Amino acid sequence: VEPPQGFFRDDTALNGIRLLCNKQGIVTSSEGLWGEWLPAKDCGRTARIVSFRLRVEQPRGLRDDTAANDAEFACSDGTVLEGGGGTRGSWGNWSGSCLPGLGVCGLRTLVEAPQRSRDDTGLNSAVPFCCA
């Protein structure tokens, strides 16, 4: 996540999503160039991520756009993990939930390439994949 850059600088907000799989493997989405990884959060030893949603800012015309700002993840035990990203935009719907016994094990993401002197947004969309 890139923190707010101030009034005259370009903000991108959410630039990537990383999943830690049973603390043994890592799945990382495509990544924008800006920001830092926030501390990891987990569902607990026996639960899995089964759904997520993004906070997305709609296009603002000539004003600074950020697209995806934050993410929340639903665990199979009912816990919701808050991403800790930006506050611009509004929450979208939760993704479809993985079937019982399955969890999110991958992501397909849409990340905008750097726009040089134009407005950058970073991560724009994500679709989860479920597996055992």
Polypeptide structure, described:
It holds the Pfam family VOMI. The chain has one domain: Vitelline Membrane Outer Layer Protein I, subunit A. The chain is 0% helix and 36% strand. The chain contains no helices and eight strands. Strands 5-4-3-6 form a four-stranded antiparallel β-sheet, with no helix packed on it. A hairpin with a 4-residue loop joins strand 4 (68-75) and strand 5 (80-82).
Show the helix and strand layout.
Elements: E1 18-21, E2 25-28, E3 49-56, E4 68-75, E5 80-82, E6 90-91, E7 103-111, E8 123-131
Antiparallel strand pairs: 1-2, 3-4, 3-6, 4-5, 7-8
- Broad structural category: mainly beta
Helix content: under 10%
- SSE order, as H and E? EEEEEEEE
N-to-C terminal Cα separation, in Å?
29 Å
Count of runs of 4 or more consecutive helical residues: 0
For the biggest sheet, the summary is: 4 strands, antiparallel
CATH-scheme architecture: Aligned Prism
How many domains? The number is 1
CATH H-tier superfamily: Vitelline membrane outer layer protein I (VOMI)
Strand content: 35-45%
CATH classification, class level: Mainly Beta
Mean pLDDT, to the nearest integer, reads 84
Q: Strand order, biggest sheet?
A: 5-4-3-6
Low-confidence stretches: none
Q: For the CA atoms, what is the radius of gyration?
A: 15 Å
Q: What general outline do the C-alpha atoms trace?
A: elongated
What is this structure, in a nutshell?
Helices cover 0% and strands 36% of the residues.
What descriptors fit this protein?
132 residues, mainly beta, Vitelline Membrane Outer Layer Protein I, subunit A, 4-stranded antiparallel sheet, two-stranded antiparallel sheet, 36% strand
